[in-house]
Specification:
Strand order of the largest sheet of chain A: 1-2
Number of helices of chain B: 12
CATH architecture of the largest domain in chain B: 3-Layer(aba) Sandwich
Strand content of chain B: 15-25%
Structural class of chain B: alpha/beta
Number of domains of chain A: 2
Largest sheet of chain A: 2 strands, antiparallel
Oligomer: heterodimer
CATH class of the largest domain in chain B: Alpha Beta
CATH superfamily of the largest domain in chain B: P-loop containing nucleotide triphosphate hydrolases
Helix content of chain B: 25-40%
Helix content of chain A: 55-70%
Shape of chain B: globular
Shape of chain A: extended
Distance between the termini of chain B: 60 Å
Number of helices of chain A: 9
Number of strands of chain A: 2
CATH topology of the largest domain in chain B: Rossmann fold
Number of strands of chain B: 10
Structural class of chain A: mainly alpha
Strand content of chain A: 5-15%
Strand order of the largest sheet of chain B: 6-7-8-3-9-10
Largest sheet of chain B: 6 strands, mixed
Radius of gyration of chain B: 22 Å
Order of helices and strands of chain A: HHHHEEHHHHH
Chain lengths: 280, 301
């Protein structure tokens, strides 16, 4: 039943983006986010968004991620955006582009005159926010498809390491993330087994009345929590027995040093997008 | 109630690129009232096989007929499934992990309540089930939390939970896994009693031949998803080569006899002498020709 749920969206590959370190991708993402919101204040300058879309298109092509794959995951977001567009077009103040109306809504003796006003700002904000949403979604998809979960977790730890000086336990966050990732398949397997055991003694999860199904699910919560806590206790003992200490930096196996490709991307992409911001 | 398996095949993720064939052309029969043991190493397909017995899995090809019901996708509609699971009780490995209710009585009553039985009948079933697993049935015990018991006791509570549905066949996946010797004996005593008094057909899954030797009437040995050996334990134990080919260890007594024969001691035994030391010892003594036991043999010098 639950056996086939994939843990992460990671797909192996050897594209350029795959070969970048997680830190590079995260730093570039941070840069792009800042730039997107700055560019928002330059109405009708599409440079940044256009260049970013182009870069993403190139990255997806290089990583051999199909359009169908992207579309299947983007469908819901696109629908939500389409629903939101009329509202952002109509309800933004500023210099008027066109106005439609006045229309009158009437209900019995009450009447409400409405003028639909579309402003330049409205159009720009609609375009820019739609672009920002789509670009952020694409970036997260690109990162998760080309980076292993472990690599991501370690990348975040390394980026947060400087904050250790102000008391943030970066390595502990890293350990928590990595342990959770490690145990997701284990706990899913245990849940699967538990479901089969309870089904074998009469519980129902996918059929029967609502009360029956709720009863069924309530037979899972206690044992599942117990199993997770038992594992956590055992793991804590095992870590302690291997000399795990609360202070100090751990060696990270998966996220290596930044290579020439990383430095290249860290210079080229901000340069390109900055150029687009300033000149286009 | 009997279970008939005909040319059963089961593949996980059938048709997908990562298809895994777990069972290949299995044919066996477990007649009514018998205690059958399904033996095999991890990954041999035993758990997959027994999950067919109560409708959790459906054969990819082949048939399985449980108490006259041919289990297919059509016959395993939800209405049929609850009845099937009432008739065939399946207890998974480490069943104490499935205890969830605040009191023992509630946990054991879960099955009967799902069968929509009246409260009085449910109470009676709970009493009966706890009795059958040799646990107390007084009010204080019934109101205790299942987690306040030892591992062996928790396992028996889980068994009671399945028994309360009054199954005709009981399938147990490694019932003695992780139990100490005393708890193991208790569980096996319960199972023997159930078979003797209630006539419940038993199917045990294990990886240890000697463990199920004295309980089982028939053994089925699986390896790599195929049925390699079947028959009464005494017969199967003699085929030490085939047993080892399955990745299993022959019982210590059979191994001893085989090794002794290899080294030149011609022990002749009836096949069931391999089951217990008490039956094997006279055969060894007779072969050695020691005086006393049979009256035969040479004088020692």
């Amino acid at each position: 039943m639950l056996e086939n749920m994939p843990i992460s969206a990671y797909a192996e590959g050897t594209s350029l983006v795959h070969r970048l370190r997680a830190r590079t991708k995260l730093l570039l993402l941070g840069w792009l986010v800042v730039l997107f919101f700055l560019a928002n204040h330059h109405p009708f300058h599409y440079g940044v968004y256009g260049v970013s879309f182009a870069l993403f298109a190139l990255a997806f092509l290089d990583a051999r991620i199909s359009l169908g794959y992207i579309w299947r995951r983007m469908r819901l977001l696109v629908i939500l955006l389409l629903i939101g567009i009329p509202f952002s077009l109509i309800w933004t103040t500023g210099q008027t582009w066109r106005s439609f109306g006045p229309y009158t809504l009437s209900y019995h003796q009450y009447s409400l005159p409405i003028t639909v006003v579309v402003t330049y700002d409205g159009i720009w904000f609609t375009i820019s926010f739609t672009a920002i949403f789509l670009l952020l979604f694409l970036s997260s998809m690109l990162i998760t498809t080309t980076t292993t979960p472990v690599g991501l977790a370690e990348g975040i730890v390394l980026l947060l390491r400087p904050l250790r000086w102000v008391g943030l336990p970066a390595d502990e966050f890293g350990l928590m993330t990595l342990v959770s990732l490690r145990f997701v398949p284990v706990l899913m397997q245990e849940l699967n087994q538990l479901i089969k055991a309870q089904i074998s003694r009469g519980a129902s999860f996918s059929t029967g009345s609502l009360t029956a199904r709720i009863q069924g699910i309530s037979t899972l919560l206690g044992p599942l929590l117990q199993g997770a806590l038992r594992r956590a206790t055992n793991l804590a003992s095992a870590l302690e027995a291997r000399g795990y200490g609360v202070t100090g930096k751990a060696t990270l196996l998966h996220e290596g040093r930044l290579r020439w490709l990383d430095w290249l991307m860290l210079m080229v992409i901000p340069a390109l997008t900055l150029f687009a911001y300033l000149k286009l | 109630m009997s279970i008939v398996v005909e040319h059963l095949n089961h593949a996980y993720n059938a048709g997908a690129p990562h298809e895994h064939v777990a069972l290949r052309d299995i044919s066996l029969t477990i007649p009514d009232g018998v205690c059958a043991a399904i033996i095999g190493v991890t990954g041999s397909g035993k758990s997959t096989l027994v999950q067919h017995f109560n409708g959790l899995l459906i054969p990819t090809s082949g048939r399985i007929i449980i108490d006259g019901l041919d289990v297919t996708a059509k016959t395993t509609r939800p209405e049929h499934l609850l009845e099937l699971r009432r008739r065939v009780g399946l207890l998974f490995q480490f069943p104490e992990a499935q205890l969830f209710a605040p009191t023992i009585a509630d946990d054991v009553a879960f099955g009967p309540r799902r069968l929509r039985l009246k409260d009085k009948v449910v109470k009676e079933r709970v009493r009966w089930a706890l009795n059958a697993v040799a646990l107390p049935t007084d009010a204080t015990f019934l109101a205790r939390s299942p987690f306040a018991l030892s591992g062996g006791q928790q396992r028996r509570v889980a068994l009671a939970g399945v028994l309360a549905m009054r199954p005709l066949t009981l399938v147990l996946d490694e019932p003695s896994a992780g139990l100490d010797a005393e708890a193991r004996d208790e569980i096996y005593a319960c199972l023997s009693d159930l078979r003797a008094h209630e006539g419940i057909t038993l199917a045990l899954v294990s990886h240890d031949m000697s463990e199920v030797a004295h309980l089982a009437d028939m053994l089925f040995a699986l390896a790599d998803g195929e049925l390699k050996l079947s028959g009464p334990p005494a017969q199967v134990f003699q085929k030490t080569d085939k047993i080892q080919a399955c990745g299993l260890l022959p019982p210590p007594l059979a191994q001893t006899v085989a090794l002794a024969r290899e080294h030149g001691l011609p022990i002749t035994t009836a096949s069931d002498a391999l089951l217990t030391p008490a039956r094997l010892a006279p055969a060894i003594v007779a072969t050695l020709g020691a005086p006393g036991l049979n009256g035969h043999g040479k004088e020692s010098t």
